[in-house]
Design brief:
Elements lengths: L12 H8 L6 H6 L4 H4 L5 E3 L13 H8 L10 E12 L8 E11 L3 E10 L2 E18 L22 H4 L3 E2 L5 E3 L15 H20 L4 E10 L8 E9 L4 E10 L5 E12 L2
Antiparallel strand pairs: 1-3, 2-5, 2-8, 3-4, 4-5, 6-7, 7-9, 8-11, 9-10, 10-11
Length: about 280
């Protein structure tokens, strides 16, 4: 059975799609609890914020915000097999005290094969409180057949102190040599096109970049302000390793430049990150 929905017969497509995004499939959205109008028939796109989505200082992490907005140029899984090309966040508010976020999407332009999109991420209890602006580009890899039916709503996890860090849930580990790594490809981290999904990409990048920025700053009291990922090539084999470097300037910010590489395919770069942090809680 193929892991790339583009090669699935039309009559099997939506059954396979539901399986890939179901209880034993893609981890990203079901674990974080993202609900969308398009896929779930929800009133609006939203996600509850748990304690495992926050830094030690209480700020909402970048990866959950990027996953909640999931910019793909305006292409939807309902009508296409999409893939992100770029995804970026400008974080305006650390989100302390926010229990749920709403994603307000504003299309820029969606063409035949490439699209441009943007969103506002706001506090559900106070929509005038804008937490971040998200934007990105995406491509359409193929069309979907008719027959889509909304997926079941994601069951929300209870927010308890024993929840593990997000990177541990996605299998990311820090190797003895200091490199962060994702394991070989599994259905839980695989997209509908059979490649590494954006979710684990953001999560392992944040674990690696936060550690690097804290080491560079000499303190764990840091927060991310800007987040920009370029999805360079399909990650198909793994394990996937992260390397990078940090630099500072006169404005007191720390820029981390990271690469995610597919060790199973000649160590080629599959994604690149620039993240800007500021010291202070």
């Amino acid at each position: 059975m193929t892991d790339d929905l583009r090669h699935v017969p039309a009559e099997e497509f939506w059954g396979r799609f539901e399986s890939m995004l179901g209880a034993d499939g893609l981890l990203t959205y079901r674990y974080l609890g993202r609900k969308t109008a398009m896929l779930h028939g929800a009133e609006y796109d939203s996600m509850r914020i748990r304690s495992d989505m926050r830094t030690a200082s209480g700020a909402i992490m970048a990866a959950p915000l990027a996953i909640a907005s999931a910019e793909a140029g305006g292409f939807s899984d309902v009508h296409s097999v999409p893939a992100p090309v770029t995804a970026a966040l400008h974080i305006l508010d650390d989100g302390r005290g926010v229990d749920e976020i709403i994603i307000r999407r504003t299309p820029i332009h969606t063409g035949r094969t490439m699209g441009f999109s943007q969103s506002e991420i706001v506090d559900a209890a106070n929509p005038s409180r804008v937490l971040a602006v998200s934007y990105g580009t995406g491509i359409k890899l193929g069309d979907t057949p008719p027959g889509f039916k909304p997926l079941e709503m994601t069951r929300e996890l209870e927010d308890i102190p024993s929840l593990p860090p997000l990177h541990a849930v996605f299998g990311a580990i820090r190797r003895p040599d200091g490199l962060w790594m994702l394991p070989k490809m599994t259905p839980e981290i695989m997209s509908t096109s059979g490649s590494l999904h954006l979710g684990p990409t953001h999560v392992v990048f944040e674990a690696a970049a936060t550690e690097l920025a804290a080491r560079h700053a000499g303190t764990d009291a840091i927060r991310v302000e800007d987040w920009h990922v370029m999805f360079v090539a399909r990650g198909t084999d793994g394990p996937f390793t992260v390397d990078g470097e940090a630099s500072t300037g006169s404005l007191g910010r720390i820029a981390c430049r990271m690469s995610l590489r597919d060790a199973g395919r000649g160590n080629r770069i599959v994604a690149s990150l620039v993240a800007v942090f500021r010291a202070g809680d």
